[in-house]
Amino acid sequence: MIEPLTVPADARPRPDYLTGTKGLQIGGIEVPARSGRTFATVDPVTEQPLATVSAADAADVDAAVAAARRAFTDPAWADIAPYQRTLLLLQVADVVEANAEELAVLESLEMGCPLTQTRWMIHHCVEVFRNHAGWPTKLYGQTAPSASSQFQYVLRQPLGVVGAIAGWNGPLLQMVYKIAPALATGNTVVCKPSEHTSLSTLRFAELLAGTDLPAGVVNVVTGDGKVTGQHLMSHDDVAKVAFTGSTATGKHVLATSASNLKRVTLELGGKTPYIVFADADLEKAASICALAFCAGSGQACVAGSRIFVQEPVRDEFTELLVGAMAPYRAGLGDPFHPGTRMGPLAFRGHYERVNGYIGLATEAGGTLVTGTEPIAGGGLYVAPTLIEGLDNKSRVAQEEIFGPVSVLMGFRELDEVVDLGNDTVFGLAASVWTRDLATAHRAAARLDAGSVWINRGSQMSAGPLPFGGHKQSGLGREHGTQVLDAYTEPKSVIVELS
Ligand code: NDP
C-alpha cells in the first residue's frame, strides 16, 4: 500500500488572494463577468473548492478584445521607442520575480504540482520575459535591391490583438510563452487560461499594475474553453490565436480561425520516444527516463511516454529504471510536503481518463511492471506505472495519456527504432541515449520531432531555441528567431524617387 505524504490542513498555504470572487482583468481593472456567473476552481489534493472565479461569456470577451484593440492603437503603446518596450518587458520580469512565491503557491494549489516544480516554472517565466526583452531593439526589417529611381524596404509590424489560450499543466509558463513575444513585437493580448488553473494568470495581470505597461495591453478572461475560449478564437478583431492544448482542440482552433484567416500557432500533444542504445550510460538514462514520465505526474507534452531499449541491455535497463522510479513512488503526496516528488493529477475527470488507459493496457495484454500497488486514502494520486508487453501500435503506445505512465519496448537496431519512434501522429520531441556520435546524429536527423535531446531529457527553451511540433504536435514555433515571424506581418514599401 502506498501512503501519500500529507500536510495538515492548517499547515497548507492559503494566500489572501483566494478570498472573494476573482474578476476578469480587462483594460487594467478587475471586473465581474457581466452575467454575474462564476465557477469554482478546485484543489486536487482535497477536491474542495479553492476560489470563485468569474465566468466570461461573449459580452466579456468583446469587452476584453475592445480594450486590447484600443491599447494596440494607443500612442502610449503603439508609438513608444523600441528601447522603451525593452524596459517595460524587464519591469514585467521584475514584478513576476518579486511575487514568484505567491504565483508558485497558487499554481501548486490549483494543479497539484509540487512546489519545487512550480517555483521552477515561475522563475522560467522571469527568464522568458528577460530573453524577449532583448528583441524590440533588434527587430530589423529589410531594404530590398531596387533601381536607383526607387527605394524599397520591408517593415515588420505587429499583428494586433493576440488571443492566447493555454492548458492547465504549466498555466502561467504557457501563457508567458505567448505574452512575451506578443509584447516584444508590439501586439496586445487577451489571455484565456484553462478553467482548471486560472489563478496565476489572473494574479499576474493584476500585478502588472505595478509596472508602466499601459492598461489594456494584457487582459484576462476566464471560463470554460467551449464558451470563453470559443468566443475569443472566433472573434473577428482577434488577429492571431496562440494556443497550447490537446491536438483535438488545436484542430478545432485551426478550423475556426479560418473564418477571418487569423494567424495561428499551435503547441499540441506528444508521444515522446526515449531511445536507449546498449552503449549508453544506462544508469543515467534510467534516471532521466523515470524523471521524463514521473515529473509533473506525467502531465507534460514532452513526457517520455514511450521508452525503447536495445535488446541486449533490456533486462539490465528495466531493473535500473524500476529502481529510478522508486523515489517518485515514495514521494507521492501533497505538493507542499518537502518530500513530494509527484503530486495528484490535476482534476478528477483527468484522473479517470489516465486510469482508463492503465485498464486498457492490461486488457490489451500488457503487464504492469510497476503501478499495481493500491494507494491509501483515495484522492487523485496515480503511482508511476511502467507497462511492458505492448506493441507500438497499441492505443496505449499511440495516444497521449498525460499521466505518470510509460510503455517500455525493445528494439534491435537504429533503422528499426527510428521507424518505431516515428510511427505516431505526433512529433514533438525525442531523446536519444548513446555514446556513439554517429548514431546520435543519424537518429537526430531522422526522428520526426521538433526537439531532439541527446544524452539528456527535456530542456525547455527560455529564448534562443525554437520549440514546437512536427506533424500533429503543432504548427509554428515559440521561442527562437522563428517566434518573431509568428507575431509580426511584413509590409513591402516602394518609394518612387524620380
Ligand atoms: P485542451 O485542449 O483540453 O485545452 C487547452 C485550452 O483550450 C484550455 O484553456 C481550454 O479551456 C481551451 N479550450 C477547450 N476547448 C476550447 C474551444 N472549443 N475553443 C477554445 N478554447 C478551448 O488541453 P488541456 O488543457 O487538457 O492540456 C493538455 C494538452 O496540452 C495535452 O495534449 C498536452 O500535450 C498539450 N500541451 C502541449 C504543449 C506544447 O508546448 N506542445 C505544452 C503543454 C501541454 P478549458 O480548460 O477551460 O476547457
From TrEMBL:
InterPro entries the record matches: Ald_DH/histidinol_DH (IPR016161), Ald_DH_C (IPR016163), Ald_DH_N (IPR016162), Aldehyde_DH_dom (IPR015590)
Aldehyde dehydrogenase domain span: 34-493
Protein name: Aldehyde dehydrogenase family protein
Sorted UniProt keywords: Oxidoreductase
Highest taxon of the lineage: Bacteria
Organism whose genome encodes this protein: Pseudonocardia ailaonensis
Gene3D superfamilies: Aldehyde Dehydrogenase, Chain A, domain 1 (3.40.605.10), Aldehyde Dehydrogenase, Chain A, domain 2 (3.40.309.10)
